[in-house]
Give the backbone structure.
Amino acid sequence: MVGPPADVDLWRLAWEHSPVGMTQVGLDGRLLLVNQALCDMLGYDAADLSKRGFQELTHPDDLEADLALLDQAVAGEIDTFRIRKRYFHAQGHVIWGDLSVALVRRPDGSPLHFISQILDVTEQRDNEERLSAATAEVERERQALEAIFETVNVGLLLIGADGRYERMNRRHLETMRLPFPDGHAGTAGQLGHVYLPDGKTLMSTEDMPSYRAAQGEEFDDYRYWVGDDPATRAAFSTSARQVRGPGGERLGAALAYQEITDLMRAMRVKDEFVASVSHELRTPLTSVLGFLEILCDRGDLPVDATTQLGVVRRNALRLQGLLADLLQVGQVAEGNLQLQRTEVDLAALVRDAAEAARHVADKNQVAVVLDVPDRLLVTLDGQRVRQVLDNLVSNAVKYSRPGDSATVTLRPAADGVVIEVADTGIGIAADEVDQVFTRFFRGAEAVERHIPGTGLGLDIVHAIVTAHAGTVTLDSELGRGSTFRVTLPARVG
Ligand code: ADP
């Protein structure tokens, strides 16, 4: 009959199969008995290991503490102890062990030997070290970011997904006083002394950069004025980016506020200068043109003088056109673009614009193709839209090579009209496409080919289209051509 194992058998089973290293250690430190787990841990076989003393297996830096505890046990001050210490593996590397020791005494109380259990915690220790190195790295990074956050001369604001202000740096805190002299409640979209770039129109909640960012928008260089006193107000350019978690979920947004007061003032001075110079030049030029008309009408001038006067008149007219562009740019900058909406036949307007470009197109051997309905009645500012058409069509002709073509398409759309001016001309480099609507911008290809221009036309196009609440976009490929697409919301028919 098989009965339950005796205590001694149980002890032996536990000893042999324990995953924890176990040893019976003599008072001199020799390992009298060792189990398989300890042999595996330290890389010896049992016979070899039991010849050794724990002192030679222990890392010298940990020996003193271990010996002191053993002395205390032998002296009867303690019965057991537990320490974390390093052992040497047979192959020389270090093993971290979690050591528990109990002193076994004879019935008369004198010390007999120690029973030690050693758990291999090397891997745990390595993980702890890696974790603490990573934590230190994160902390260093955090401190570096904190230093940057507080030292940059740009206002920085972090808002949560619900639009609450979570953090801002010192710079932003300082600049908040101008738009919000009575304080800020810390929620995106609070109204204050914040004005659109014209410096006059107060921003609505939907315009506020923090509100837009809280709604999930991302933007760059969003400009506006803050402060109700024109003498002390400041201009800012703001960018926003969404902050997302590892799973792509929105955590909030980060906003950067750069002060650009000097830049905005300088731009205003430049616009005023351009406006006043063009205005001053217009009066004498009108007089020059008037007298030229009179001279050209005289029948008694020699033929060569009449030809030369024709050249003078053409150039004076070109000057007049340039001045008109400059004046218009000045008006746009002032926010003074007033529209006179009437019902016009847009198809006829397109045909007129194409006709006006015909002379240069023929000279450049560029075919102008029209794809327009016979008639399309639309309510908009006909004169301004004609300027848009003139600029786009003349550009299409100007920036094309002999044999290229320019096609103007006009069609009604959902709530207005779409005008497309496509050419097969020189095209625009990809990195310049975003800049063509910027005032005075000229593409490298245009400059290289010495094609005359001022960089004002597309700025005017953009301003007129925007005033109509429309959009103008550009698709272009260098060497293959460009397509400008104007969408104008308007009443059709
Ligand atoms: P301008 O033609 O007087 O230089 P615009 O404002 O009309 O000024 O155009 C700005 C720039 O955009 C031009 O200098 C040219 O580099 C580029 N551009 C405009 N239209 C075209 C086009 N159809 N094809 C190629 N480049 C163009």
